[in-house]
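hey so u asked for the seq, here:
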Amino acid sequence: MAFNLQCEAMKKRESQETMKKIKIKTIVVLIMALSCFSNHLKAQDNMNTRMKLSSGEQSIVSIAALTAKGDLSNLKPALNAGLEAGLTINQIKEVLIHLYAYCGFPRSIRGLQTFMEVLNERKAKGINDKTGADASPIPEEQTKYERGKKVLGELTKAPQEGALTGYAAFAPVIDTFLKEHLFADIFERNVLNYSERELVTISVISSIGGAEPMLRAHLNICLNVGLTPGKLNEFVEIIQSTVGQKEAKDARTVLNEVLKNWQ
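ran it, structure tokens below
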């Protein structure tokens, strides 16, 4: 009888110890699961952040699109919003200078004149906006043509060698102008980085319309220089709200094609 009681007591202690171990294991598993879930949420938050345009990038899209359309009345509040978002005076000037290569001097100059008015109005209200850095001197060890080829190679991630083809072979001087001026004189200026310049470019091309092959090429470049599919989808949304439904629809069609083929 005593022996049976002793056995039962031992079994009870073993059962209690087993339950204790199970509880400890369960707690450890729960802690690990919660930790993994927390890390997953952090990763999602980081990804969502990377997928969103910053307020400055959003302003670059709006400013470029409205200038390209010649919508100066709506450009004014967009310029104010850009300054409030932290863009410097020189950055916004560079946006307006850059876009002349894609929609001409008249639009660019009217944008600059509108920006001058905005700055004067803000100054009259006692608002002192940050000027920002000027463009750094560009080393000239190579010819502008070679420098332009190098920049274009960095943007497209493709070698710029071999015989000219297509429109460049048909009119070689346009190839010279593109490489020497657009990709050397303009893209080399470090007031804006490559991704910001590409946002200006696709905003202008989408706004003027009828240049889908160029838009397709520059959307691919956007992906090459670090603009995520999420950011490019948001870009289309801004085009819709800023310029119009048709322009956004056309841009969306091209973007979907690009993303479908993107590796």
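The longest helix spans residues 2-50. Confidence is low (pLDDT under 50) at residues 33-49.
lmk if thats what u needed
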